[in-house]
Every structure is written in structure tokens, then in C-alpha cells.
Design a protein that fits this description.
single chain; 173 residues; alpha/beta; seven-stranded mixed sheet; globular
Length: 173
Amino acid sequence: MDYGAQSVNDDISNQIEFFFHKNLKVDMTSELKNEIRKAETILYLGDNCGEIVFDKLFIETMNHKNITFAVRGKPVINDATLEDANQVGIDKICRVISNGFDAPSTLIDFCSDEFLEEYNNADLIISKGQGNFEGLMESCHPNQFFLLIAKCYPIANLLGVDKNDMVVSKLVL
């Protein structure tokens, strides 16, 4: 649900319905579930403010005792901030931090020391959205999963999928 990019449909209900009935083109969910069970610490990188309601549901479903949810450092496009996460109540189910920067991505070179410590020490990173993928696809974290919709042809081609395909993948490029 990203109104900062070309959306499949401007009607949010139709957009949810469209993706609800669409299969994952790259599906490493069983591997992700296994890594969630093994991880002592999880860093979950949020993306758009409209999606964090679903992020909260996913975090609750994981039922993990040590999750940190990271948002953007300042408002940018429609990406989630600390205020958004608190309004949805994510702060009631896990720790919430800012990445310390206002790019529509997670750019390691510009993130806060607090975020970098969480990122470098997390057993598992769950990274939501194409923006985070673009910023982190070449990072060297050994256990990082990307959950995204390929919103443009260059990223779709890089992932070997079609535009608007959904992906859950652990990537090492």
C-alpha cells in the first residue's frame, strides 16, 4: 500500500483484495519461519505507514519475545515514523526505534548508532518494502529476508519476477 509509487489501484480496499489473492512469486516463507524460531533477536524494518497495521499482526503472529521494529527517522513520502508505530500500538508489543534518517529506504551509512547496533547484532532481519530492499540488497548481514512487491521493472528484473509480483526471499547478491 504505497501511494508514493505507482500503485496497482488507488482504492485501498481493491489493492488489498488484489494482493490477497495473488501468490508469492518467490516464496521462502518456510525458511523465514524456521529462522524466526531459531532467532534470539529479530529486527523488523517497517516501510509504509499504511502497512504497519499488517506488520503489527505479523509481529503478533510471530509470538517472539525479542523483536525490535524500526521506522524512518523523520517523515518521508508515506513511510512509517515513530508516531505512526505508536498510534497503531506496535510499541505495546515490541520495542520501536528509528533508523535515524529520512530516506525512503534504510541506508546503513546514514543510520543512527542505535539502529546500527540493532542491525549488526540481530540474529534475523525482516526487511519490508522495495525501498528497504534497494538500500540493503548489497549489505552483508548474513540472515536478512526481504518481503516486498516489485514495483518497477528494474527491481523485478533483478529479482527474476514480473512487475507487481510479491517476494519473500533471503538474498545474497
